[in-house]
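BUG: 3D viewer hangs when loading the predicted structure for this chain

Environment: internal workstation, default settings.
Expected: structure renders.
Actual: progress bar stalls at 90%.

Input used:
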Amino acid sequence: MTTTPQSPLGLFAIDHLLSEEERAIRDVVREYVDERIKPNVADWFEEGKIPARELAKELGTLGVLGMHLEGYGCQGTSAVAYGLACLELEAGDSGIRSLVSVQGSLAMYAIHAFGSEEQKQEWLPRMAAGDAIGYFGLTEADFGSNPSGMRTSAKRDGDDWVLDGSKMWITNGNVADVAVVWARTDEGIRGFVVPTDTPGFRANEIHKKMSLRASVTSELVFEGVRLPADAVLPGVASLRGPLSCLNEARYGIAFGSLGAARDCLETAIAYSIDREQFDKPIAGFQLTQKKLADMALELGKGMLLALHLGRLKDEHLIRPEQVSLGKLNNARESLAIARECRSILGGNGITLEYPIIRHMNNLESVFTYEGTNEMHTLVVGEALTGIAAYR
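Structure tokens produced before the viewer hung:
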């Protein structure tokens, strides 16, 4: 006996939980990804390069850059709508979602939340339109999980600031027009808005990556970069600034990672129905169906968690440890789904003819960045016990 197959998230009737506007936004982004990203991304991944500026303009026209921010050319959508857009973008590729996340949830959010009115007016409309690309400089080669140890510094020199140091693993670094760079100062951790044509700045693109190949990743070096007094973000002088930005990006990952997992699972289901062994589709074997059922359960549970967090965020009730719950669970389970789907495709699972190995490699990075699996585990552990166990 056979019945009509259901989609994994259709099994959970997820659309019933979404408003008409949320479904419409999701569908527009999905259509763009299906028409523009999926037909090209395997080649971009293999070549290790993407048409970043061209894509930024397209994504600006689509309205997804800083879409959850208010004013300055931004769409002012709900947090749930933004999450759904991240999911659809990452169903195309994690690198594309990263471009949007870094632009909107890190660089634009920092300026929006902590910048002066002049900084907002100068940069946010151009960034929302994709006319200017931004990056977020926090991580250093020796300080990832412990950003308080950063060595990049900014010192006052008359009315100016002089910035020295380096940052590592920076998305958009070699294609950006503006940077939000965090540095140690005598006043605490401060953020600086740095046009990338400022003398003393250089970006070195990182090559030979096996993950996020359809994304620009860079090392940044600042040597005596002189900045005017109004380059500093006036709204914050502590690690609260960059950490609040990271929470924005982590929230997007809670949705985004599920997009990669969904694409893997849909691919594996279709493949298992078409692929025959021992005179029947491998989808008809109990072991294959157990794999598919288990993965659908984890994908659906992750989606329900992400939607719940989105509703909390829209009501301004979400807490940082809840964002960690979403990032921890959904990045972990999405990676596990990708690995299991790869096994269903056998040898075909390692080729770029199918998206699974690309998603799997990308999710290895998603599992680590914006807070490692271990760090989010400890955030949850602290929330449960009241005891910080980071050291």
